[in-house]
Design brief:
The complex is a heterodimer of chains A (215) and B (278).
Chain A (H helix, E strand, L loop, with lengths): L1 H38 L4 H16 L2 H11 L10 H27 L2 H9 L4 H31 L13 H9 L4 H30 L4
Helix pairs in contact in A: 1-2, 1-4, 1-8, 2-4, 3-4, 4-6, 5-6, 6-8, 7-8
Chain B lengths: L10 H31 L5 H4 L5 H36 L4 H16 L2 H44 L2 H9 L4 H32 L2 H4 L4 H10 L6 H32 L16
Helix pairs in contact in B: 3-4, 3-5, 3-7, 3-9, 4-5, 5-7, 6-7, 7-10, 9-10
The chains are: A mainly alpha (215), B mainly alpha (278).
Chain lengths: 215, 278
């Protein structure tokens, strides 16, 4: 009785966790890429915006961002009737700062000599970027990017504190109906998160091996 | 300056960049103005939304909350360092009996969401531990596990010749660790440890969820009160406080790291801590 209820509620919870993860991951990747482009651009105001964004969002606790997005944004008339999408805003703006730093340090691992060599054989800026710099940067970026998405997976749990019925929320939800089930709930939910983390790091190492090149 | 993406700009590129700078400035200012305009229109920049922060009583409460937050973070970091040392040496042990449990503990607490851990501790032991120690215990287990990995990386970053030399003059393993590896490793790890302090301080805000005393809990009382109803203003003030403290800490870590690199030392960089991933 308890066991089937545990499984069904965890399935419900993790479905929402995965949805949060998917949408926030997508938006974080998009915003983070734009920011990284701004941070390496030669135009000063864009660089400044990138820097200010990263320092602002990286140093604010996620709980405070949730507070602003979930409790504060309705006052501005933004997404008034969707807790889910406001949580996605908090998660993706936070994670974008880390994605940006990841991509930027990836670009910086490529040695300037590589681009200089490409330019000296007459490649245009676009060719240099597409054929020489980005493929090398991509390789360097996979492991840290995987860590960022793993952190995002764990961070989706904060949504539980703001009324979203994802996996972590089920911990207290299940205790209400089944007193004394705390430890098994905790273990069950933990296993769920560990599985998601395993999938992400497994995919990352697969990708890494695919693009690995001896240097 | 030449970078991997751009050569040193010539006269034409400089002219283009000047145009870009002007256009960019206009765009950025326009965006900023637009945000301020929305805030103004929705009556968020009015005295009644912000006057809470001029009341001495409220400011005092926030200062006390901040002190509680800093206290929880400091205690948690101190305990986490101890936890990290124990489990890092466990992981580096020659005895499988010590090694495997250490690996298991460290990997488990790093993989589980911190909030889930804090809630579990609070529901299970909260009645005896209270909110403060539930929060600190959760922070300790998580940050201690991350620190254990940093310590391990730091010890492994000491050149092998150092421990070989120590063994060859007849030191035992514990002596090598205590007298040769640790002193050199701690210096290498200092930047990563400070970055981890930033993470711990940010995570202390999670105490809000279990009602632990702290600046977020204190601030939440302001916007809940029917007098103010200003969650946006409260959130912005809170994030400003955290940004100032965390930015100062990150700069300190960066400064130490760059100084050590200049001196040609081994450094366990920020990438090793959770600071790089959130």
């Amino acid at each position: 009785m308890y066991f089937s209820e545990l499984v069904s509620r965890l399935a419900d919870g993790f479905l929402i966790t995965v949805q949060l993860l998917g949408w926030s991951g997508l938006f974080a990747a998009l915003i983070g890429t734009v920011l990284a482009g701004m941070r390496v651009s030669p135009i000063t105001p864009f660089r400044a915006v990138g820097t200010v964004y990263v320092n602002t969002f990286r140093n604010t606790p996620l709980v405070v961002l949730f507070l602003i997005a979930v409790v504060g944004l309705p006052a501005l008339g933004i997404l008034q009737d969707s807790f889910f999408w406001r949580a996605v805003i908090a998660l993706s703006t936070y994670t974008a700062a880390f994605v940006c730093e990841c991509l930027r340090s990836g670009i910086n691992t490529v040695q300037p000599g590589q681009a200089e060599a490409a330019r000296s054989v007459g490649m245009t800026f676009g060719q240099t970027l597409a054929i020489v710099v980005l493929p090398q940067a991509f390789r360097a970026v996979i492991p840290p990017l995987a860590s960022v998405f793993i952190a995002l997976t764990k961070n989706t749990s904060v949504a539980a504190a703001f009324g979203i019925t994802e996996a972590t929320y089920q911990l207290s939800n299940l205790i209400r109906d089944f007193p004394g089930s705390l430890v098994t709930n905790f273990i069950g939910i933990s296993i769920g998160y560990i599985l998601i983390v395993a999938v992400i790091s497994g995919t990352a190492s697969l990708l890494e091996r695919r693009v690995a090149v001896a240097r | 300056m030449s970078s991997v993406l751009f050569d040193v700009a010539g006269p034409r590129a400089r002219a283009r960049q000047r145009v870009g700078t002007v256009v960019g400035t206009v765009l950025v200012l326009g965006l900023l103005g637009w945000v301020l305009w929305i805030l103004w229109q929705k009556e968020q920049i009015t005295p009644d939304k912000w006057e809470a922060f001029t009341e001495p009583q409220i400011l005092e409460g926030l200062a006390e909350g901040l002190l509680d937050t800093l206290k929880a973070a400091a205690v948690a970091i101190a305990l986490a360092v101890a936890f990290g040392l124990v489990f890092a040496s466990g992981r580096l042990s020659d005895h499988a009996v010590l090694r495997w449990p250490s690996v298991l503990v460290v990997e488990f607490f790093r993989a589980v969401p911190l909030l889930l851990l804090i809630l579990f501790i609070f529901f299970g032991l909260g009645s005896t531990l209270g909110t403060f120690w539930s929060l600190v215990l959760g922070l300790t287990l998580y940050n201690g596990s991350v620190l254990a990995e940093i310590f391990r990386a730091g010890i492994l970053s000491v050149p092998r010749g150092q421990s070989e030399a120590a063994y060859s003059v007849g030191m035992r393993k514990s002596q090598v660790m205590r007298m040769v590896l640790m002193p050199q490793a701690v210096r290498a790890m200092l930047p990563a440890i400070i970055s981890q302090c930033v993470v711990a301080l940010k995570d202390t805000a999670l105490g809000f969820v279990i009602g632990a005393a702290g600046i977020v809990d204190e601030a939440a009382r302001i916007y809940i009160s029917p007098l103010y109803r200003n969650p946006l203003a409260v959130g912005l003030v809170l994030s400003a406080v955290f940004i100032v403290i965390n930015y100062a800490l990150s700069r300190l870590a960066q400064y130490l790291e760059s100084r050590m690199r200049r001196e040609g030392r081994q450094v366990v960089g920020e990438e090793a801590s959770a600071a790089a991933t959130g």
